[in-house]
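job 3f2a | input accepted
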Amino acid sequence: MALMTPAIRPSNPRFSSGPCAKRPGWSLDALSGASLGRSHRSKDGKAKLGEVIERSRDILGIPADYRIGIVPASDTGAVEMALWSLLGARGVDMLAWESFGKGWITDVAKQLKLDDLRSLEADYGDIVDLTKVDCDRDVVFTWNGTTSGARVPNGDWIPADRGGLTICDATSAVFAMDLQFDKLDVVTWSWQKVLGGEGAHGMLVLSPRAVERLESYTPSWPLPKIFRLTKGGKLIEGVFKGETINTPSMLCVEDALDSLRWAESIGGLASLKARSQANLQAVSEWVAERDWVDFLVGDPAIRSSTSICLKFADPWFQSLGSDEQAVVAKTVAKQVEDAGVGFDLGGYRDAPPGLRLWGGSTVESEDMRALLPWLDWSFEEVKSQKAAA
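job 3f2a | predicted structure (389 res):
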């Protein structure tokens, strides 16, 4: 029997996993102070870029001797800059449990063509055995798998006296989870995830060990200008003081500043984490009372609070062929979107058929709770329609 249409609607139906929901109360007025029509190299422009760097450092607790830069091409650009600039000095362990991690493996294997490369991979819903990682080699991994909802539980598996560099794609974890920066040599993210910012800009954090690698090692391959972090064997310090390699959008910079100021106003990182955890808790309570849906990630210790990935556990769904399952999953997401209560809920194209709910810090837990009955309604509607066909 089909369910009644839920009476309560989310105030904000935006649950996309990137770009993500703007912070509560956001409006275009938040951008009124943007340095438009001004050079990003002007005193005002560099001051705003520097402010993004320092506010990020303060909120995240990034050590004072770590460099923070704003770089081109979002998180992808920041990761590629690190891979092309730093790898090749020693062997590398590449870790992957979702599509982005697998993409980094492809780049290193087929573009950089490193010989001493080990790929440790896990299926969607799990992570690799971290005890098998050799941190005397360079290690590349995602802290939180955006397309799978699986994350490392902590950084305890990384030794303090490691010989290699740890390169961490943290774009869907930063500002929502604890990152142990003393265990990380390179950290990347973009504003468009937990901060709810706009695209095209990446953040790159380098430890002193990463800087030492840059200044002592020259890759055998040529580096495009947009990737170059050194000149004459020395770090280009200006990149880490707001002197960006290419022209940034000062409108996006103002939006990032607005998000950072909001984060500070609500209590900083502790409050951001609590808000994200509240979203996961809402979904966890709902899943526990349902038999048609479950988490894609079975182990709560490695379950993401930002990229919350769900699978269909209903026996009827499991009896369908893979193509039919994909159709059902897409139909459920489309029906919720057509009702105007939940946008962009479909699972990632390479992931198993399911749903993905963004539970980052800009999402209100009341909206998450209001969304969930609509998922019940949509699944039952689709199931009834398919059974009657």
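job 3f2a | The radius of gyration is 22 Å.
job 3f2a | closed
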